[in-house]
Specification:
Layout (H helix, E strand, L loop, with lengths): L16 H6 L14 E6 L4 H7 L3 H7 L3 E7 L4 H4 L7 E4 L2 H9 L1 E7 L4 H9 L1 E10 L5 E3 L5 H7 L2 H6 L4 H9 L14 H15 L7 E5 L13 H15 L2 E5 L5 H9 L5 E2 L7 H9 L3 E4 L3 H8 L3 E5 L14 E4 L25 H17 L4
Parallel strand pairs: 1-2, 1-4, 2-3, 4-5, 7-8, 7-10, 8-9, 10-11, 11-12
Antiparallel strand pairs: 5-6
Length: about 375
């Protein structure tokens, strides 16, 4: 029996999806797609960074049509990348992945991270050509191509970060030498999860919501606690949206927002619908997909909502507004302080940049986005 080991759908340890679907064999398969070379992408980092970096995949696939794209990431980010149409393989960072790097050969290795693990993996990878960053013999970062210098300098200078006016995606396209592309972020949100989320909300609300659904993401991520909008402001916004707009308020939280969610739910009489904080990533995405508008800080929820083409109101303080590509799907709100985008993890100023974002500012932006949602987006 002949097997097409060079096919992008071939799997070393199991039958391909087409064989499982209709028992077809490799010989004469109409979906045979030979891969002539492989490209390794190393992107660890925070899940939000991993998700927004998926924007490089469609133009990369166009640039290398005969290549299989292979992504190496942290185990918790694997579900973010699952089912992506441009990826042939997704590998969690483990001993097997490190062993693979010592044996397998790639035509290109792309590393866009400056973390020590990512640099070492890029140095270890066997590739004819490397782009981005690697590790030197004395443990120092090595810039692999001139186009990667600007992002390297920005990563080491808060002043340069503050002056930057290009989006993260624009910087990454530049490093890779790719033309601008507006395909955007692609989110793993299967149909069965969307159906589950819709049925959950119908059950909780007694039918399809009569008014708009607004998602509130209370998080700030693990590192930048200062990115969080005060939880009492979320409570006041929820009350205002429910009373004036008839909105159904959906909480979008992760494990790190347990305390903030308790404070919110214990101090408000407005109905809040909470699907929990322990949902797998595809299910979390399905709940985000229910929303007409999502109010969020600079978090994973922001990039998930943008990837699902939801309208977004994004709140910014210590991190860069300019870096976030909104794809024409929302608006950014900042306080206008001179020290905005300081990249400090904590702050002793009162009122600080997030505290100066008022409920009225956010409510007005949400209403504007709801109008746009009614004109264009459908749940």
């Amino acid at each position: 029996m002949k097997f097409n080991e060079d096919c992008r759908f071939f799997r070393a340890d199991r039958p391909c999806r087409f064989h499982k679907t209709d028992t077809r064999r490799c010989e004469g398969c109409r979906d045979y797609a030979p891969v002539k070379e492989s490209i390794l992408i190393i992107k660890l980092g925070a899940m939000g960074d991993v998700l927004r970096t998926t924007a490089i995949l469609p133009p990369l696939a166009k640039e290398y049509p005969d290549a299989g794209l292979v992504w190496l990431t942290l185990p918790e980010s694997v579900d973010l990348l699952a089912n992506h149409p441009n990826l042939r393989e997704i590998h969690p960072l483990d001993a097997a992945a490190v062993a693979m790097l010592q044996v397998r050969e790639f035509c290109v290795c792309i590393n866009l991270d400056l973390g020590p693990d990512s640099l070492a993996l890029a140095a270890l990878a066997r590739a004819e050509h490397k782009i981005g960053y690697s590790l030197g013999y004395h443990g120092e970062p090595v810039i692999l191509n001139p186009e990667a210098e600007e992002w390297y300098h920005m990563s080491h200078s808060d002043e340069l970060k503050r002056r930057n006016r290009r989006t993260y995606q624009e910087h990454m396209f530049s490093i890779l030498g790719l033309p601008p592309d507006d395909t955007g972020i692609i989110v793993n949100c299967p149909g069965n999860e969307r159906a589950f989320a819709r049925e959950w909300l119908r059950e909780k609300t007694g039918g399809d919501p009569k008014g708009p659904v607004v998602g509130l993401n209370l998080g700030a991520g693990g590192r930048w606690k200062q990115k969080a909008w005060p939880v009492e402001r979320f409570g006041a916004l929820a009350h205002l949206l429910h009373e004036t707009d008839g909105a159904t308020i959906l909480l979008l939280t992760g494990e790190g927002e347990k305390e903030a969610k308790e404070i919110l739910t214990n101090n408000i009489s407005t109905p809040l619908y909470d699907p929990g904080s322990h949902n797998p990533l595809p299910r979390f995405a399905a709940f985000v997909n229910l929303c007409d508008v999502v109010v969020t800080g600079d978090t994973l929820a922001l990039h998930t909502a943008l990837g699902l083409r939801r309208r977004v109101v994004a709140l910014f303080g210590p991190t860069s507004m300019a870096e976030i590509e909104m794809y024409g799907q929302g608006r950014k709100i900042g306080s206008g302080l001179d020290c905005l985008e300081c990249y400090r993890e904590t702050c002793d100023k009162h009122p600080n940049c997030m505290e100066l974002i008022t409920v009225e500012m956010v409510h007005e932006a949400v209403e504007q986005e709801l109008r746009l949602a009614r004109e264009g987006n459908k749940r």
